[in-house]
Amino acid sequence: MSRILRIELRRSAALGAVLILLLAGAVLLYAAPQRWSSGWMSLAMIQREYLVLLWPLALAVGAWQARREHRSNVGELFASTARPRVQRMVPTLGAMGIAVVCAYLAVAAAAAPWIIDTAGYFPATVFVVAAVGALALVAAAWLGLAVGRLVPSLVTAPALAVAGIGLLMVIPVAVRRREWLALVFSPMYGMGQYTDYQTVYGRVSAAQAIWLAALAVAAAALLASGSWRTRLAALLPAILGAGLAIMIIPRNDEFLANPVDPVAQEQVCAEGSPRVCVSRVHSGLLPEAAPLARQALALLAKLPNPPTTVHEDTTTYYPDTSPPRQADVVLMPITVDKNGHLARKAEIVPTMLKAAGANTNGCGEIPSTSVSRAAEYWLIGREPVTEYAHEPAEDNAEAVKLWQGLQRLPEKEAAARVAAVRRAALACEDVDGLLTRSAR
Fold it and tell me: Could you tell me where the beta strands, DSSP code E, fall in 252-383?
């Protein structure tokens, strides 16, 4: 059997499948490396998202391979042999399965050198997400083989490719608000990255693996079937697998669209002082982040009771979470560029100073934005500027007026007033008027 499998790997469409999927996957990943450059989990999830094109390609490759007997006109010859059809199909199934799995893993291996120096967090979930993606391609290739055998036409392969793309795009629309159902039947749904801390729950991966394995078994049975009765029976594994997957998948109150990995959010600190910490998923960026964070702390040292520690701002919006507000901690924004390194370095210190001066994140509406802006820009050391395209001109004009008032004060008094704004902002209190009256 192993000898026959080696022959199949050499002479079937297996090698072509590897090349097609590897080329397509690598082009998709390297077309937008900023989507996955933040870490290994991002890479695994974005590669799964690109199954929107790789899955239909695997379908088409399987259908093309299935036409081999029809093209060679040896169907009657094989039917007259004593070997059961199931035994004849095993090498073909094995060759196509090995080919698509190798192609999927090769795409990930091609992307790994891009982030290997900066991605420091490698959770075991990465292997699970990648394994489900590889299983999805196996199911697609085997399903393509089965359909190609039933309809051995030249147009079957391209038609399957188009139908596969359409199916993956239609599934989320068809299930409407039942997003958990789309997670079961679409291997690429829910893999878009809304935050670097995003993950995939184990129950979700288990449900997806059950459905895809059942689909692969059904496709293999359909390929080996010889009558309409056995072909109908081949659908049974898919039906049972779908039912079991639906029972396992989290839904209703248990369902969370974009779950966050709490371990990825844990703070990892650099050596030395002042203390600078970033999330575990960005731990490879500590050497780049620490000098900037300590520069911001040095500038904040002119405030009474200044902050002494920097933590990464791990705020997420889908779901809505934010780190606790602490008077002695300044939050540092971390974004990753397309090369896996710290992005927008020139903006980090000013952003930290602004947040430290009047951080109102999570407080709702603060009545006086001009007061907050004047305090922020006093810490930065330059005149306030308009920050938003549709912002009324009078908003910034008032901030400039307050900032000029701070400039005329002795530095100690100005620092005390800015510190008062900071205390009020941390407590989510009204900051209006705090820059125009003497600090206590």
Answer: 267-269, 275-279, 309-312, 316-317, 320-321, 329-332
pTM of structure: 0.88
Order of strands across the sheet that contains 329-332: 267-269, 275-279, 309-312, 329-332
Q: Which residues contact 29 (CB under 8 A, 6 or more apart)?
A: 36, 43, 46, 47, 50, 107, 110, 111
Q: What digits encode the pLDDT tens for the residues 142-166?
A: 999 999 988 888 899 999 999 999 9
Tens digits of residue pLDDT in 256-278: 788 999 999 999 999 988 999 99
Residue 68: both structure tokens together:
């081999």
Which residue from 201, 227, 168 is spatially nearest to 49, judged by alpha carbons?
168
* Neighbouring C-alpha atoms within 13 Å toward the C-beta of 30: 14
**Stated length of the chain:** 440
Per-domain residue ranges for the chain?
Answer: 2-261, 263-426
DSSP H helices, 234-321, are 236-248, 262-265, 286-300
Selection from 185, 134, 183, 165 nearest residue 21 by Cα: 134
